[in-house]
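Field notebook, page 107. I keep forgetting to write these up properly, so this time I am using the form the group agreed on. The chain and the ligand, copper (II) ion, are recorded exactly as supplied. Prediction of the bound pose follows.
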Amino acid sequence: MRKLNALLLASALLAVAASSHAASHAGAPMASSADMADGEIRKVDMDNKKITIKHGVIKSLDMPGMTMVFQVKDAALLNKVKEGDKVRFSAEKSGSAIVVTDIQPVK
Ligand SMILES: [Cu+2]
């Protein structure tokens, strides 16, 4: 009986250790997802390397939600999304323009 109690205690401790480990990861998500804003693609303009996104709050840019045109850092980013897609994206200021630096469709 004593052996069983020790076993139960050990597995309980393991469970606590595992969950606090998971919690600490959840509390410090990777920058790639934490800094991303929500949006929905309105228009993809391959020729001009521009994309129109109806976006939510962008904390890193101190911007409220709106629909606006972004430039893209790399034209290849435009191949990852299409009109109507829900996306998560990162954007940064570059001179007077706001440039999308990463974008990914949300399933
Ligand atoms: Cu905006």
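OBSERVATIONS:
- The first helix runs from residue 2 to 27.
- Residues 21-31 have pLDDT under 50 and may be disordered.
FOLLOW-UP: compare against the apo run.
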